[in-house]
Write a structure and sequence with these properties.
The chain has about 220 residues and is α+β, with helices and mostly antiparallel strands. It has a 6-stranded antiparallel sheet with strand order 3-2-5-7-8-9, with no helix packed on it. A hairpin with a 4-residue loop joins strand 2 and strand 3.
Length: about 220
């Protein structure tokens, strides 16, 4: 009986030890989760305060372009003009009050085309400010990271006028009226020479055919 009691005590102690270890592990997991949640950034909008916004900055780095367009008023458009900024004389620009999220940036310059750029406005880990990351915006290729602040340059020059087509005489040869007129002129030149080379008897038959009518002359009739 004493041995059975000792075994029961040892089993009870083992169960108590296992329960304490499990409880400690659960507490560690809870503490770790609370710690990780404590490190998560706070929301972008403080309680009762305005939402956090950032500024998209950059410059046009083509000096030749800036010289050509020094008298042109150019703008930086974000999200099709929802946010705008003026390009300064040195090519730099800044667009303020950009909210968190994905935005598309391009340049409005008369006569020039700029490729659009995708900019991600992200909240910093501190939760107190916004940082910007730039990427290419070409659907034909894989999106790649771009340096920030933005460094923009014009892609192509836009032509607003259609160049006049050059004179091409071959176009007139495709006109049916011109073809009919050309064949008539050839016949007017060739037929007299053909008649001159004919025998006298053939000429006489041709004259008689013309007396009967032009159709008879063409078909070789004459009586």
């Amino acid at each position: 009986m004493a041995g059975r009691r000792q075994l029961a005590l040892w089993a009870l102690l083992a169960l108590l030890c296992a329960a304490s270890v499990t409880h400690a592990s659960d507490m560690d997991d809870d503490e770790l989760e609370e710690h990780e949640m404590g490190e998560a950034p706070p929301p972008a909008k403080a309680a009762g305060g305005p939402p956090l916004t950032g500024t998209i900055e950059g410059a046009i780095i083509n000096d030749a372009f800036l010289k050509l367009t020094r008298d042109i008023r150019m703008r930086v458009l974000v999200d099709d003009g929802e946010y705008q900024g003026i390009i300064r004389a040195d090519g730099s620009f800044a667009v303020h009050d950009i909210p968190l999220g994905t935005h598309f940036v391009t340049v409005d310059a008369v006569g020039w085309h700029f490729e659009s750029v995708r900019v991600e406005a992200l909240l910093r880990k501190s939760g107190k400010s916004v940082r910007m990351k730039a990427f290419t915006n070409n659907p034909a290729v894989l999106s790649m990271g771009l340096p920030y602040p933005l460094k923009l340059t014009p892609a192509t020059r836009v032509s607003y006028f259609v160049e006049r087509e050059k004179f091409n005489p071959m176009v007139y040869l495709k006109n049916p009226m011109v073809l009919i007129f050309g064949v008539t002129m050839i016949m007017a030149v060739v037929m007299p020479r053909m008649v001159d080379n004919m025998d006298d008897s053939d000429k006489q038959k041709l004259r008689e055919s013309y007396k009967s009518g032009p159709a008879s002359a063409l078909t070789g009739g004459g009586g």
